[in-house]
Design a protein that fits this description.
Blueprint: H1 16-20, E1 25-28, E2 31-34, H2 35-41, H3 47-60, H4 64-70, H5 76-87, H6 101-104, H7 109-115, E3 117-123, E4 126-131, H8 137-147, E5 150-155, H9 158-185, E6 193-197, E7 202-206, H10 214-217, H11 220-234, E8 239-244, E9 248-255, E10 258-266, H12 270-280, E11 292-300, E12 303-314, E13 317-326, H13 334-337, H14 341-351, E14 356-361, H15 368-379, E15 386-390, E16 401-404, H16 413-421, E17 427-430, H17 436-446, E18 451-456, H18 461-471, H19 475-481, E19 482-494, E20 499-503, H20 506-512, E21 521-525, E22 536-547, H21 550-555, H22 562-571, H23 577-586, H24 592-598, E23 606-608, E24 615-617
Length: 660
């Protein structure tokens, strides 16, 4: 508690400890008044009570303010209000203040205890300091010398200061234990790992064997947050979630599309951890009531990464999510993404066209941007002008002109696209079609000598046409410019280190056999240290590719239902997501449950006649409209066959074609 002594005189030659107990007057303009006089004039205390307190002070040497509060003569709030008004200083409530790690690191624990103060934040060369005795000039001078900063004092109660000092400085031991556990579990204990934050321009090392010792000199919260980021990047997580709960702060990583709990941080560290992340992302740490967005650029082991940061006020505090974006795209091709040879040949024929539109569809996180960037790298050459408009730019692609959407200055997708059309482009990539204006500009550009690539949020290829019409795109634009629609999903790959055989239930096998599942004997991941006992490591794509050509182009906007459109596309060789999934299950690439979680079971009750293209029931062996023979399955083994197969792949019997 800030207090003044009512004792006699001051001796400037006394020790610092003696001077701390000797301050007995409060400035009020040019005059100095004793604390007891201020309280008596304000009507907060009576003369007899003040006299008893002064007697107790002379006997114990305790501060007057503490004596008055402890004996119930005045309230703590009254004391602080009186001192604040008299000294023209702001009173701070440390329970509501976010103490920043950078400020805390500016003052050693011993100095904080000696001067009974707590650093709240550092702003340029100014240290904002909550103090018990903010008017003690000697204290302020000593603190300025110790920190090398200008001191801006605030008034705070002694009880709060003492508790806060032990809480914030005492957290170092707890954080050290957390750091040690993370280092051991993440196998980072070898060489130190350097994480450099571009905004701060400081390389920070963490690890038990940091040769330069910098790892131990950082503020504890800085070390903890850095280590969490390093572990997430090392494990190739796509997102980091800091989620406040009732008694702790939960940290989860999204790995291979699934969230995994990583650790629980004690509740009293929550504010400091969240503040550290917000400081790194250049967000307003004082604003806890509204969502915010920020960004962090870091370098780790020679890799440049962007971290997109989002905060959201939740029930028990601010929830923080960091999306990890690698600035340099990985060396991938369509085959490594999971696209089969037949699909690769189809998409290659489309993206080698000089004009037209290619759409990649799927939900958020299904790998659409990765597919488009892979195609752009295949198109990249000295003779091709490729321009992209993205929000955000996820990968830096050498030799490709990339434009960032900036809505705050009026640069949205449609306005950027119009500007790009004046830049003599050959290939244009639009990050996402979100509205009618962007869609119309993109489709018209695809009719005027430009190859346009973009994404759309739809469930499958057939529903994409319906979505475009709902947006407001004219049917003739779709029919004239659309080359192909690629629907895709991501599924986890079985870990190769613990893959083992697994027999499917007979009924499940029989239900999946029409979709191309070859055998009930498939694979699963048992779980091992390489995959953290999940059975999966890495992801691969499932693809459904509808090439718009022939009768499909003629009838695509004639009012066909999505079911009829899908069946017509299948009759022309389109493989649906579930069929591609069953192919990868048969190969041992992924597990059955992974495919069924992302690909819906299509109805196979109808199929298209190859001759008249009318739809008939699957039980029909001959088309009732033109008499064409309809292949149902192999006459020898009964396996489901595709219309263009010449030999049954299951028993090698030649497929017999019958004329109608």
């Amino acid at each position: 508690m800030f207090s003044t002594y009512e004792g006699k005189g001051k001796d400037k030659d006394k020790s610092m400890a003696e001077r701390e107990g000797a301050t007995d007057k409060v400035e009020t303009g040019k005059a100095k008044k004793r604390l007891g006089q201020l309280l008596e004039e304000g009507g907060w205390i009576k003369a007899p009570d003040l006299e008893r307190a002064l007697v107790a002070q002379r006997g114990t040497g305790q501060r007057l303010g503490e004596i008055l509060v402890e004996n119930g003569m005045i309230g703590e709030g009254i004391l602080l209000e009186t001192l604040s008004r008299s000294m023209s200083l702001m009173v701070v409530d440390l329970a509501k203040v976010c103490v920043e790690p950078e400020g805390l690191a500016s003052l050693p624990y011993e100095a904080a205890r000696k001067y009974r103060c707590l650093p709240m934040r550092k702003e340029d060369r100014i240290l904002h300091l909550a103090m018990v005795d903010p008017c003690n000039a000697d204290f302020l001078q000593d603190l300025s010398f110790v920190t090398g900063l200008r001191i801006r004092p605030y008034l705070c109660s002694a009880r709060e200061i003492d508790v806060a000092i032990e809480q914030y400085y005492g957290m170092e031991k707890a954080v050290d234990e957390l750091v040690e556990r993370i280092v051991e579990e993440a196998h980072l204990e070898g060489a130190a790992i350097s994480l450099e934050c571009a905004e701060e321009g400081v390389g920070e090392r963490v690890g038990k064997k940091a040769e330069d010792g910098q790892g131990t000199s950082m503020a504890p919260i800085v070390r903890l947050v850095n280590l969490i980021l390093i572990e997430a990047i090392k494990k190739e997580a796509s997102d980091i979630h800091f989620e406040p709960a009732k008694g702790y702060l939960r940290v989860r990583f999204r790995m291979d599309g699934h969230l995994r709990k990583r650790m629980q941080i004690p509740k009293y560290l929550q504010g400091s951890v969240v503040s550290r992340v917000k400081v790194m992302a250049r967000m307003d740490i004082a604003n806890k009531r509204t969502p915010q967005d920020g960004a962090i650029r870091v370098r780790l082991v020679g890799r440049d990464l962007d971290l997109r940061v989002s905060s959201l006020p939740a029930n028990y505090g601010e929830k923080i999510v960091l999306r990890i974006l690698t600035q340099t795209a990985r060396n991938t091709d369509l085959e490594s993404l999971g696209m089969g040879e037949a699909e690769r040949l189809k998409i290659e024929a489309c993206y080698k066209r000089s004009q037209g539109m290619i759409l990649v569809t799927g939900p958020t996180g299904s790998g659409k941007s990765t597919t488009l960037h892979t195609i752009l790298k295949l198109l990249r050459s000295e003779s091709t002008n490729i321009v992209t408009v993205e929000d955000p730019i996820e990968y830096d692609l050498e030799g490709i002109n990339q434009v960032q959407v900036q809505k705050e200055v009026g640069m949205d997708f449609s306005s950027c696209l119009r500007a790009i059309l004046r830049q003599d482009p050959d290939v244009i990539m639009v990050g996402e079609i979100r509205d009618q204006e962007t869609a119309e500009v993109a489709f018209r550009a695809s009719l005027t000598g430009h190859l346009v690539l973009s994404t759309l949020h739809t469930q499958d290829t057939a529903s994409t046409i319906t979505r475009l019409i709902d947006i407001g795109i004219k049917e003739y634009l779709i029919r004239s410019s659309l080359l192909a629609v690629v629907a895709q999903r991501l599924v986890r790959k079985i870990c190769p280190d613990c893959r083992e055989g697994n027999a499917l239930d007979r009924s499940l096998f029989e239900s999946m056999q029409p979709y191309g599942l070859r055998s009930p004997d498939v694979y699963r991941g048992k779980g091992c240290p390489s995959c953290e006992y999940t059975g999966f490591r890495g992801r691969v794509g499932l693809f459904e590719m509808m090439v718009v050509e022939g009768s499909l182009r003629e009838r695509i906007t004639s009012g066909m239902s999505e079911t009829d459109m899908r069946e017509l596309a299948r009759s022309q060789g389109m493989q649906i997501l579930l069929e591609d999934g069953m192919e990868k299950v048969s190969q041992g690439c992924t597990a059955m449950e992974e495919v069924l979680s992302v690909a819906k079971i299509e109805s196979l009750h109808q199929k298209a006649c190859l001759r008249c293209e009318r739809f008939v029931e699957s039980i029909h062996r001959f088309c009732p409209y033109c008499g064409q023979y309809l292949i149902q399955g192999c006459s020898a083994c009964g396996a489901h066959l595709k219309t263009d197969w010449k030999v049954c792949p299951f028993c090698s019997k030649e497929v017999q074609m019958h004329a109608g």
